[in-house]
Amino acid sequence: GLGIYPIGPLASAEIYHPASNRWTPAAPMHVPRRMHTAVALRDGRVLVVGGTLAPGSPLAATQLAEAEVYDPGRDAWSMVGTGLPPVIQQAATLMTNGTVVATGGSTDMGFATASAEVFDPATNRWQPTTWPMANARYGHTATLMPDGKVLLVGGYSTEPQTVGGFVYPNPQLLRTSETFDLRGNTGVRVGYSMIPRLEHTATLLRNGLVLVVGSAYASDADSQLFDPGTADWVSSGLRMDRYLHSATLLADGRVLIAGGYGVGSPTTAWIYSPVSVTTASSTNPLLPIAVVLLLLVLTTAGLAAASGRLRRRRPGAVREPESEWIDS
Question: pTM (2 decimals)?
Fold first, then answer.
């Protein structure tokens, strides 16, 4: 993590114990790092990938190519970087089979990559995937969806720019998203959110939609839902000036958005509820409304069918009427 001023990366680690509500020190990592990715493996270990030494200063190439695994049973870290390219700001995702896929990243020269690698916990080795991503990117989010594909959202891409005979990366914020399938398909672009996303969050909801919140370079960015079935982006109903925040899926299916940067964001929190909570009573107050709505739907459908103008609307084209944001 990031140390206090003067800014410096940390190699230290701590463990939180929910039963006793306390923290205890753990063995330090081999490499101090910040802005890294940590993934909990199925066997109880924790995989740490990438990172930087200081703001604007990536790890040395030899260190970038060295991921680490923490074993809580032995309170020890092991280097597991064999086969991992030297990049930072890649996104690591735990797959259904227990492997971890790392997508994209930035080289030590600052260029975005379109490669992806798979970590096998059984062998502690990395292997490149056969197929590349659709867009080279880094600083993106990678969310595993129910169908086994990984949704990649936002981040930076780069274009080479020559100045004085030297080639520099020209970073471009991405409005695009894509799905990455390890089972045989290359990266497939799945539409534009129309918002440049960086240092945002993407959370898979229980209904299969993905909630994307915040952006470092889009003030009051609309919080959006991605529908994998239609590849549509729809508004969730709240604009938010927030980035580098946390998004936590709660046990009841709601999502807690807390902290980060932005106007008022460090001291505020929001809860997104995919389904509104209604108060139970002896007589359901929604029943008469439901009956009226059903009659209206049947009447409208009948008139449209009779006139030959019955058209099917794409799912997800409008905001979910039962969803809501709660200021906590």
Answer: 0.80
Looking at every residue in the chain, the average pLDDT score rounds to 81
State how far the Cα of 41 lies from the Cα of 99, in Å rounded to an integer: 8
Mean pLDDT to the nearest integer, 98-113: 92
> How many residues can be counted in the chain?
328
Using CA atoms, how far residue 149 sits from 76, 145, 225, 227, in Å, is 33, 6, 17, 13
Kindly give the pairing relationship between strand 68-71 and strand 52-54. unpaired
Query: At 38, phi and psi to the nearest 5?
Result: -120, 130
Of 116, 107, 197, the C-alpha closest to 160 is 107
Q: What domains does the chain contain, in order, with CATH numbers?
A: 13-192 (2.120.10.80)
Residues 6+ apart with CB under 8 A from 238: 222, 223, 270, 272, 325
State how far the Cα of 261 lies from the Cα of 244, in Å rounded to an integer.
6
Q: What is the pLDDT of residues 278-288, one digit of tens each?
A: 333 333 544 44
pLDDT digits (tens, 9 = 90+) for 116-139: 999 999 999 999 988 888 899 999
